[in-house]
Automatic annotation (TrEMBL):
Pfam families, A to Z: DUF1825
Protein's name in the database: DUF1825 domain-containing protein
Organism domain of life: Bacteria
Amino acid sequence: MGFYDSEIVQKEAKQLFEDYQSLTQLGSEYGKFDRKGKKIFIEQMESLMERYKIFMKRFELSEDFMAQITIQQLKTQLGQFGVTPQQMFDQMNVTLKKMKSEIES
């Protein structure tokens, strides 16, 4: 069975995408959130990023050809912006930490 044939992989990919879309839409209103709302939003983004890292690690560890192609495509796309997948995650963590510090001060 191929990586993408797995019902679990398909379900998680769909859920990650839907959660990301929802948080992105919600994030457009971030400036209007009260302190508690901002804290919840940041926590949800941190959780989503952790889930995404785990999901991507599955791709990296898979021996499936299509999974490896997906990883290479991601690296190529990010490389066009001069970043690696790890740098992307690191930058997101820096951004979330900065957002946290702004609401805690």
